Amino acid sequence: MACSAHASNSEKKVPRMKSEERREQILEAALHVFARENYHGATTAKIAEAAGITEPVIYQHFKSKRDLFLEVLKRSRKDMIEWNTKVLAKHDDPIERYQGFTDMFKYYTTQFNRDSAMMWAVAATVNDSDIKAEIRDTDDAVLEQLTNNIRNSMEEGKISSRHAPQVLARIIHGINSHLSWLILVGESRTQDWVYEDLKRFIADVMRKD
Amino acid sequence: MACSAHASNSEKKVPRMKSEERREQILEAALHVFARENYHGATTAKIAEAAGITEPVIYQHFKSKRDLFLEVLKRSRKDMIEWNTKVLAKHDDPIERYQGFTDMFKYYTTQFNRDSAMMWAVAATVNDSDIKAEIRDTDDAVLEQLTNNIRNSMEEGKISSRHAPQVLARIIHGINSHLSWLILVGESRTQDWVYEDLKRFIADVMRKD
Amino acid sequence: MACSAHASNSEKKVPRMKSEERREQILEAALHVFARENYHGATTAKIAEAAGITEPVIYQHFKSKRDLFLEVLKRSRKDMIEWNTKVLAKHDDPIERYQGFTDMFKYYTTQFNRDSAMMWAVAATVNDSDIKAEIRDTDDAVLEQLTNNIRNSMEEGKISSRHAPQVLARIIHGINSHLSWLILVGESRTQDWVYEDLKRFIADVMRKD
Amino acid sequence: MACSAHASNSEKKVPRMKSEERREQILEAALHVFARENYHGATTAKIAEAAGITEPVIYQHFKSKRDLFLEVLKRSRKDMIEWNTKVLAKHDDPIERYQGFTDMFKYYTTQFNRDSAMMWAVAATVNDSDIKAEIRDTDDAVLEQLTNNIRNSMEEGKISSRHAPQVLARIIHGINSHLSWLILVGESRTQDWVYEDLKRFIADVMRKD
DNA sequence: GATGAATGAGCCTTCATTCAT
DNA sequence: AATGAATGAAGGCTCATTCAT
Q1: Among the CATH numbers 3.40.50.300, 3.30.360.10, 1.10.357.10, 1.10.1040.50, which is that of C71-206?
Q2: Which segments constitute the HTH tetR-type domain (chains A, B, C, D) (predicted)?
Q3: Which of B122, B124, B170 sits opposite A181 (nearest CB)?
């Protein structure tokens, strides 16, 4: 959306960009359009417009609209995994950590990178096996990340072992996932207190008696 | 692909039908097509074919494709609420009841009326405010149904009051919702044991110490 | 190009036609456009315009532009074979017959169904294996028709057996084919006397000494 | 796909070249692409790739794709005329000469410069008056070359004067032309014996009784 | 001389929707 | 009540061609 800082002759319109830069910019623009308009609603024309280019440029960087979508998904996945890693490293106390996980998830899905989070709900309805595989893999990856972290906390004796780590992970991740889905459909009434409730619940369930 | 086991006077193909009956038949066919092909993938041609009629007939019963989709959603909502009511009435013991809720939810989303459940994931990406409102309302209704039931059980002193009823409801419903979303994207590896784990978890969290 | 002889209410534009009729009309229009503009030059828009319809109608009768082209080819083939059959039946005297073959070929390629003849030159450059196969098969069929006829004349002792029937057939058909190719590129200077020369040549080569 | 055996100072990839040399290289590459993919199928991208250069370079040497095609055609024409001249000079005995003409034509269209021969069938369907004029002129030139040669042989009393030289020329050239067209569409079944038959036919028709 | 980046124009095809019968 | 025929409006994608570097 921002343009040329180096190019100076401001008579023509579109600034020439290095390939890698433009590719990145298209991915960024496509992310927003896909997340807001869905796969089918996001026409190549809209994406091009959002990127400030003409349609054919898209096809110099991506084989097809589907390919572009997949690349956007992969970018979102990396983004989400990185974010989770960062968040899980933030607190020493495990209970605070998993509470923070929910807090930060809220921040991620509503503020920091809302569209990136929305992509997964959108992707789920595309009816393309590669896209579905990407979703499953990502879901698995996030779940594993969280499960391992919880298991470690248990093994270190820092949280209760009453429930299997994968159950707790599934619950935390599942609820988060569900809440982000609610955001997609515009549900905002119950949001805020829900997160606080969940944090209290997490503490309660994990605390060593 | 074949539908109605209850509808009876459909002989073989495209016979004159009473308006109400035909409408019902279109809704039934549309449900399957929408759930399997998404909103955009479900063309009016496919829906008509699935219903064994021609396209214009659709427009004698529904203003537009969008209208048809909304009606299908409303039908799914009724179906789901009724199902929940029935399930919640099944067990006297509350803990068995909420465990059964998960069990039956699994049955509903995978066997009994899978497509009806899938509609919600599909609907979430249509980017139409009326449709989104319908989703939110339905989600609210289900949540309220469950919350009230749990609150009653607490008031009757049958389950622990450690956690607020809306939190427990949100968790049970949220996980269920997430699991049905996983089904949509084809995840089936962890399904079975997950349900058992969840039931144990529910019991554990609700049991009076 | 001509419209409704039965439809009377001349207020709207496009006359409703029976499916078979319209299909035939599209084939006819497409023949002219393909023959004059080539496969790629003949856009579906031009074909639709020539048929006095809108583009989507084409797709109610043919899977694709390629499919339409193939159907036009098949129609041309039938037309050409029928024409040949008729011509070969016209004269009792074999020499007059083969001379007439050239005469009528000229008439066919320049007047009666010029575009049908042109299709083959156009088709030869489409680079599609099915289309090429159709061309080869047609060429074979015409050649066989002529070869058999010549062989019979020889066996009946009506023409000289100095040259093998397939050679004579190949020569007559080959020259005809070449001449129609010349018409395609607009060569018209030498046309007329060439046909007379050829007829004399044929007589000379076939006459029993 | 590799071309120039005569061009020598091309080291590996896209080196600076003298204008004339580069032009020649583009023409050579374009010939192959046009002959194999047709006018419309041969995109400037494919031509550039075959020439090992980028697209804009083409436009430094040729005004447009059409212009390039015309230049390729002119090159093919020179090539073909030269070849014919060489072949007609090979045999002293006229009958052997015209038989050789067919032999060498076969060699030319199938082995030595197949693509150059194919250009003419491709060109015939481009629907551009300049291109069609070029084809006609070339056809005329070849025909004249052959006619003159045959006329000389007749005047020298070496072959029968039963048929007018232009008729014999038209037949020989026409059949050759037709056979190369058959090659274009992939007909290869009857090829080999046909050439032998034709040679026998030529001898028979030209021999002085 | 050569290229990387960009685009206007247009093509084939699909789809929701209407209308005459 | 039902259908066959028709279409306006787009949508994804490609291509010849041009500029700035």
Answers
A1: 1.10.357.10
A2: 20-80
A3: B124
Query: Residue written as tokens 């590129």?
Result: C185
Q: Which residue is closest to F15 in terms of CA–C1' distance?
A: D43
For all residues of chain D together, what is the average pLDDT?
87
pLDDT at A3: 35
pLDDT digits (tens, 9 = 90+) for D172-182: 999 988 888 88
CB A140 within 8 A of CB A167: no
Condensed to tens digits (0 to 9), the pLDDT of residues C104-137 reads: 888 888 888 889 988 998 998 888 999 999 999 9
CATH topology of domain B14-62: Arc Repressor Mutant, subunit A (1.10.10)
Give D8 CA → F20 C1' in Å: 33
Nearest to A60 by CA among A31, A14, A18: A18
Topology (CATH level 3) of domain A70-206: Tetracycline Repressor; domain 2 (1.10.357)
Q: How far in angstroms lies nucleotide F16's C1' from the CA of residue D66?
A: 10
**Looking at beta carbons, which residues of chain C come within 8 Å of D194?**
167, 170
**Is there a contact between C72 and C119 (Cβ–Cβ < 8 Å)?**
yes
> D6 pLDDT exceeds 60?
no
CATH architecture, domain defined by B74-206: Orthogonal Bundle (1.10)
Distance A26 CA to E5 C1' (A): 14
Q: Can you tell me which residue has the tokens 């280019």?
A: A53
Residue with more model confidence, D106 or C78: C78
Domain ranges of chain D: 13-62, 73-206
Count of positions (residues) in chain D: 209
CA distance D27 to D71: 7
How far from chain centre, in Å, is Cα A179?
13
Please give, rounded to a whole number of angstroms, the shortest distance from the CA of C108 to a CA of chain D.
18
Residue D125: per-residue pLDDT: 84
B78 pLDDT above the threshold of 60: yes
Helix axes C94-107 and C65-88, enclosed angle (nearest 10): 150
Do residues B175 and A170 touch, judged by C-beta distance below 8 A?
yes
Diameter over CA atoms, chain C = 71
Chains in contact with B, where contact requires at least 3 CB pairs less than 8 Å apart: A
Q: Give residue B191's pLDDT.
A: 61
Whether B14-62 shares its CATH topology with B74-206 is answered no
CATH, range D73-206: 1.10.357.10
d(CA A169, CA B124): 25
Spacing of C-alpha B23 from chain mean position: 20
Which residue of chain D comes nearest to C135, CA vs CA?
D185
Cβ-proximal residues to A150 (8 Å cutoff; 6+ apart), any chain = A94, A98, A159, A165, A168, A169
The answer to whether residue C4 scores a pLDDT higher than 60 is no
- Measured CA to CA, the distance from residue B197 to residue D86 in angstroms comes to 89
Q: Which residue is nearest to nucleotide F12 (CA to C1')?
A: A44
Tens digit of pLDDT for each residue in A37-88? 999 999 999 999 999 999 999 999 999 999 999 999 999 999 999 999 999 9
Nucleotides of F under 7 A from a protein CB: 1-21
Query: Which letter does DSSP use for residue A133 in this model?
Result: H
Q: Closest approach of chain C CAs to the CA of D203, in angstroms?
A: 11
